[in-house]
Amino acid sequence: MTSAADPKAVKRERIARRIARELPENGLVNLGIGLPTLVADYLPQDKTIFLHSENGFTGLGPAPLPGKEDCRIVNAGGKPVTILPGGAFFDSAMSFAICRGGHLDVTVLGALEVDEEGNLANYMIPGKMVHGMGGAMDLVVGAKKVIVAMEHVNKNGAPKILKCCTLPLTARREVDIIVTEMAFIRVTPKGLYLEEIAEDTTVEAVMRATQAKLIIPSSVGRF
Amino acid sequence: MKRLVSADEAVSGIKDGASIMLGGFMCCGQPFGLIDALLRRGAKNLTVISNDGGTPCTGVAKLIEQQRVARLIASHIGLNPEAGRQMNAGTLEVDLVPQGTLAERIRAAGAGLGGVVTPTGIGTEVEKGKQKISVDGREYLLEKPLRAEFAFIRADIADKFGNIFIAKAQKNFNPVMAMAAQTTIVEAEKIVELGGLDPDDVTLPGVFVHTIVEAGK
Description:
By secondary structure, chain A is of the alpha/beta class. Chain A has helices spanning about 5-20, 90-100, 135-140, 205-210, and strands spanning about 25-30, 50-55, 55-60, 80-90, 105-110, 115, 120, 125, 130, 145-150, 160, 175-180, 185-190, 190-195, 215, 220. By secondary structure, chain B is of the alpha/beta class. Chain B has helices at about 5-10, 30-40, 60-65, 80-90, 100-110, 175-180, and strands spanning about 5, 20, 45-50, 70-75, 95, 115-120, 130-135, 140-145, 150-160, 165, 180-190, 210-215. In chain B, the strands form two sheets. In chain B, strands 1, 2, 3, 4, 5, 9, 10, 11 and 12 form a nine-stranded mixed beta sheet that branches. The interface of A and B includes residues 55, 96 and 173 of A.
């Protein structure tokens, strides 16, 4: 699926594979646009997982074959997709009742910044990127588990896991897990707990790439 | 029986400064024919309520590109660079509303509610200027109803009473918007006699619909 020559693709695949393992049997899961969407390619074969599409259906399936597109079935990015057997269509009020009402098991989103309290900033950079929050605020507030999927540092090499977010927040204290190409971090009431590190890195390297304080257990897992 | 007219006739009463809800999510389920008729009509200085700013050269994006919109209330404008450009230039006022809150504010207007009390937006810029309400120890925002003079709705089938069927993922904002406008105009691919649409297949009851337009007419 990815070329070994493309380190960015390798990083993204690793993040997607690790998150896919975290999804529960019979879970209803929403995958954000971009990196989170990749998780769909690695869903565990031994589990039944249904994907929710915020624009109004459950049972989100893969992109259709060329020529088989149906403009009446698109994903949250407006791209043609398919619906799987067992799926259901509904309107936007129902779609967000599902999110906000606690019926969505997991939401996976990208982030610009995450911090020690589990605050998330992912929808705007004042003066630069003002796209709007779309469904992100409702998803993050309502989902039972919020997983952030992102590269560990930004394109300038600066940490994205901070002591305190500087950008406008998408939601306060809602993030549960952060998965990057370097680390699997759980947000706990005591702070950020470094549960696992990637096979090609070290605890020290993860700490150097992270501005937030990390809690390091005596034994850190590998992924 | 509802008024059955051409798209141009349906929008002929829309004046400069009107407020209009447009159903659809990106290109899916937008009432393109009514939007094109509105462009021909020439009304400007509009307030448009729509999930998003659309994608270039289609539907709601055309209204923005042709500078007919003074204020846009939407959840996302990232796929329409022109909306961002006009916003930064100060010629387009944009109110960004979380998508679920947008749906519920519109539904509240149509359902006769004084607003919705939602946890979405607490601790963010969305809470600015809004009343906070504590219910059983959890904090919520009071979000007020959102209504409009007109709603443009896209349907696959309409009967002559205005009952409509909307297929697949085109439902999105169409049913709630149809409830929240003084005048709701449906653009249907197909119009059938009473009895031609099984009551079990009705996505939105015709009580909310005032005018029906056959797509392409």
